[in-house]
Specification:
- The protein is 54% helix and 6% strand.
- It is built from six helices and two strands.
- The protein has a two-stranded antiparallel ribbon with strand order 1-2.
- A hairpin with an 8-residue loop joins strand 1 and strand 2.
- It is globular.
Length: 177
């Protein structure tokens, strides 16, 4: 679901988020690429030490890392309901803790997740505009899109662009000889 909200990462708060993660890493004495593995048992102490903004960023990174692992398990088990829940949780965290969403993406996600044929949705990419994904049944998405397009156009005076994708076979390595 392309919101058609142009974003330029250099002009957005994206660089601010990178700076916050750098500061967070320094304040916790943890390498930046290890923030995702920050122990949840240490979260209460970190909350006391950090500003509310930096703690929100940490909470997003830690919980998003766990959601990725949980999503891999949900995919392996074909637990589509759980995968949908994880997508919804991810969007909430990106919106509230990491603060990289925008009203147009929030609208697309909220409207999509109201539909019974949609199991979950979240923004994608660097944020501050761009796209979101919705995960659901083929029929559910077919029923959702016309109404969502009209509602979005009415609210934002802009046409969204929707692309429907179907899952394919998993990637694998194949010897050339």
């Amino acid at each position: 679901m392309d919101s058609r909200v142009e974003r330029t990462l250099a002009a957005s708060k994206y660089n601010e988020r990178v700076g916050e993660l750098t500061q967070l890493s320094a304040e916790l004495g943890v390498e930046m690429d290890s923030l995702a593995n920050f122990e949840t048992a240490r979260m209460p102490a970190a909350e006391k030490k950090l500003s509310s903004t930096l703690f929100s960023r940490l909470r997003h990174v830690v919980t998003e890392s766990q959601r990725v692992n949980d999503a891999a398990l949900a995919l392996t088990n074909k637990d589509w309901a759980r995968l949908g829940e994880l997508l919804n949780q991810s969007h909430s965290s990106l919106r509230d803790d990491y603060e990289v969403s925008c009203k147009e993406l929030d609208f697309l996600v909220a409207e999509a997740t109201k539909h019974p044929g949609v199991r979950g949705a979240r923004m994608t990419g660097g944020g501050f505009g761009g796209c979101a994904i919705a995960f659901g049944t083929e029929q559910g998405l077919a029923e959702l899109l016309p109404g969502l397009e009209a509602a979005y156009r009415s609210r934002y005076d802009r046409d969204p662009v929707f692309t429907v994708a179907k899952p394919g076979e998993a990637a694998y390595l194949k010897p050339l000889v």
